[in-house]
Amino acid sequence: MTTPALILDNVRVSYGDGDSQVHALDGVSLQVNRGAFVAIVGPSGSGKSTLLAVAGALTTPNSGDVQVAGESITGLSDKELARVRREHIGFVFQSSGNLPSALKARDQLELAARILGRRGRRSNDELLDAVGMSHRADHRPATLSGGERQRIGIARALVGGPDLLLVDEPTAALDRNRAHEIVRLLAHECHELGVAGVMVTHDLEVIEHCDRVYDMVDGRLTPRD
Ligand code: ADP
Ligand code: MG
Question: What residues does the ABC transporter domain cover (predicted)?
Fold first, then answer.
């Protein structure tokens, strides 16, 4: 049995103190296996972004344990956390509006691979093909639609061959059809590549494409049946 790519064990994150203390994560436990794509849904302020930040080695919890690809990351230095992100984690953001505007789609992937200093088993061309963007390889972000930019954002997140893919509200800027396509693509890539995917969203329509769904309310996570 392989270790889950992500384990959160009774993780707590709080902000502030005394009367104004907020428990952003209030004892959250979660395991995500390789090849599984799960959704976390919840209202604004329920702790979704905090959960992604913890899983993404960007925030250290006040207590509890976090393991990425079998390695406990609580107590690591900032430098070590950066290594964990580089070696194991891919991030997909809300609208992929953060793609450098001067670079063609193909070069976006090349830049990402160089920054990471590593590359998964798929070439850039294979990645572009997988996300249905081969025909746009020479396009710059300004000439791509929102859905197309999101596809490049997904390919870029997969460049290093991550164990864990963290996805923050990927459909927020897309129409319905595009939203379904993007989430279907994310699920497919996780299954195909054996990547553990975690998507936070409040788009209830697209969660049908996910293997498991968890509800987040007031910093607590509950699995749906
Ligand atoms: P979501 O992504 O579901 O909207 P967040 O994880 O952003 O929720 O926030 C969870 C709770 O923690 C909210 O009450 C929010 O106001 C609070 N919070 C988040 N980040 C900070 C911070 N840096 N300082 C203080 N409070 C924060
Ligand atoms: Mg958020």
Answer: 6-225
Which ligand is nearest the CA of 41, by number?
A: 1
The rounded Å distance from CA 50 to ligand 2 centre is 7
Q: Is the overall model pTM greater than 0.85, yes or no?
A: yes
- Give pLDDT tens digits for 57-104: 999 999 999 999 999 999 899 999 999 999 999 999 876 667 888 899
Ligand 2 centroid to 183 CA: how many Å?
18
Which protein residue has the closest C-alpha to ligand 1 atom 13? 45
Task: Provide the CATH number for the domain around residue 210.
Answer: 3.40.50.300
CB 95 within 8 A of CB 145: no
Average pLDDT over residues 143-163: 92
